[in-house]
Task: inverse folding
């Protein structure tokens, strides 16, 4: 193989790597609600943030996590574009957006529901894109 052939192969491999990284879908979608555009999970359920979460750490564990399920991340998921992955107290992984862990609300029953917004004296908020 010539030097120019090797460079061509390396350039092609780099292009493929960049293309696959660019194709990695974000962990959320954007949905429309009565309160405007919000981040949603893959099923279209509204996502929320919690004021008590600090420094990319979830404060919602135990019974709280039953009512506010975390937006789970998988080991193969890749953070980027404002999204990070945090480790919860139970060792599981959770998506965060702009440093804020993301949750759904158990009482939301269909896409577009926003019943958790303002819950607990305003501590829960819709996650906005």
Result:
């Amino acid at each position: 193989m010539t030097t120019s052939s090797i460079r061509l192969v390396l350039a092609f491999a780099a292009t493929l790597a960049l293309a696959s990284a660019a194709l990695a879908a974000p962990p959320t979608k954007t949905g429309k609600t009565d309160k405007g555009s919000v981040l949603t999970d893959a099923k279209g359920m509204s996502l929320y943030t919690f004021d008590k979460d600090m420094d990319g750490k979830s404060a919602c564990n135990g019974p709280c996590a039953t009512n506010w399920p975390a937006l789970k991340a998988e080991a193969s998921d890749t953070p980027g574009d404002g999204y990070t992955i945090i480790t919860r107290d139970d060792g599981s992984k959770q998506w965060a957006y702009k440093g804020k862990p993301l949750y759904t609300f158990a009482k939301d029953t269909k896409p577009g529901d926003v019943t958790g917004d303002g819950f607990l004296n305003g501590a829960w908020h819709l996650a906005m894109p």
Q: What stands out?
A: Confidence is low (pLDDT under 50) at residues 5-22. The first strand starts at residue 29 and ends at 33. Residues 4 and 10 are 10 Å apart (CA to CA). Helices lie at 3-23, 63-67, 119-122.
